[in-house]
């Protein structure tokens, strides 16, 4: 004799839909085959059918007359809370957008300032490198005093003698 086949969790979850006729043809065929071949599966579905039948005998409480009003007021309150949350989220979004715009403006300003000082502003180190020979002999130039003194030395016969 074949070993009894138990229903899988998915098949067990589909039993109510099977009894109500809500499954597609392939699922109905697969579940019907399992039920006809397995005693255990048949017992589970019979137990479920009996449980559904017994539920009809239970007392059904009558809703209070204000149930619809309370339900609608609760739904309205939940909608109001949702509206408040979305309003707060909208304001937060606006603030975040403004902060992002400020950071963008600040970054652009820093970039423009850096570019201006880097390329448009004269580079003092380049000037120093260009004038390095003058800086190396600056003390000697200061001792000379003036250009007129240099012209007198140039005209002096001591420096203009032909060296043979």
Task: Please give a structural write-up.
This protein has helices at 9-13, 15-20, 25-37, 39-55, 67-120, 124-130, 132-136, 138-144, 147-155, 157-160. The chain has 164 residues and is an all-alpha fold. Among the domains are: 9-55, no CATH class; 124-158, no CATH class. Helix 3 crosses helix 4 (39-55). It is elongated. The N and C termini lie far apart (136 Å).
Keywords:
elongated, 77% helix, single chain, 164 residues
In brief:
With 164 residues, the protein is mainly alpha-helical. Helices cover 77% and strands 0% of the residues.
Task: Describe the SSE topology.
Elements: H1 9-13, H2 15-20, H3 25-37, H4 39-55, H5 67-120, H6 124-130, H7 132-136, H8 138-144, H9 147-155, H10 157-160
Helix pairs in contact: 3-4
User: What fraction, in percent, of the residue positions are helical?
Assistant: over 70%
What kind of sheet is the major sheet?
none
Identify the overall geometry: elongated
From the alpha carbons, calculate the radius of gyration and give it in angstroms. 49 Å
Distance between the termini: 136 Å
Low-confidence sequence ranges = none
Strand content: under 5%
By DSSP, the count of extended strands is: 0
**Overall pLDDT metric:** 83
Task: Indicate the structural class.
Answer: mainly alpha
Q: Number of helical runs? A: 10
**String of helices and strands:** HHHHHHHHHH
């Amino acid at each position: 004799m074949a070993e009894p086949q138990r229903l899988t969790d998915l098949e067990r979850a589909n039993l109510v839909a099977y009894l109500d006729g809500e499954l597609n043809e392939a699922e109905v065929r697969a579940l019907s085959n399992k039920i006809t071949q397995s005693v255990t599966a048949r017992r589970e579905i019979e137990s479920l059918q009996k449980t559904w039948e017994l539920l009809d005998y239970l007392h059904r409480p009558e809703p209070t007359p204000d149930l619809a009003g309370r339900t609608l007021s609760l739904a309205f309150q939940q909608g109001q809370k949702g509206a408040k949350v979305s309003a707060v989220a909208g304001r937060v979004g606006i603030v975040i957008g403004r902060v992002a715009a400020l950071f963008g403006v600040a970054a652009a300003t820093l970039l423009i300032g850096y570019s201006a000082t880097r390329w448009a502003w004269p580079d003092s180190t380049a000037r120093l490198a260009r004038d390095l020979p003058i800086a190396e002999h600056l003390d000697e130039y200061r001792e000379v005093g003036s250009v007129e003194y240099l012209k007198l030395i140039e005209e002096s016969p001591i420096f203009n003698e032909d060296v043979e």
